[in-house]
């Protein structure tokens, strides 16, 4: 399945619109091109995107915080990688995972799968 890209406010708004009044949740993987922890965790996150993709109604987006700086600042992304979960058009701040913790990302997604 892979990721959608968030490069600016418009990309973010379009992605967020897909979670409003729908049965999908959205995970945004915030990173940079130079982040060693992002590169280290990415293969495990790639596996999660395949496992929890369209069939399970989980939308995955990657946001380079240097390109989408305004969105990153608005949502308090101060370290990478950071994984944010959105449901019904809203961010669930208690579900944010900062750092290369793919098992915590899995638990976050499993806990919030549509229909649970």
TrEMBL record:
Q: Which PROSITE patterns match?
A: THIOREDOXIN_2
Entry-linked Pfam families:
Thioredoxin
Source organism's superkingdom? Answer: Eukaryota
Gene3D superfamilies of this UniProt entry? Glutaredoxin
Where is each Thioredoxin domain found?
Answer: 1-116
Q: Which InterPro entries match?
A: Thioredoxin-like_sf (IPR036249), Thioredoxin_domain (IPR013766), Thioredoxin_H-type-like (IPR050620)
Would you tell me the protein name for this molecule?
Thioredoxin domain-containing protein
Q: Which species?
A: Cyphellophora europaea (strain CBS 101466)
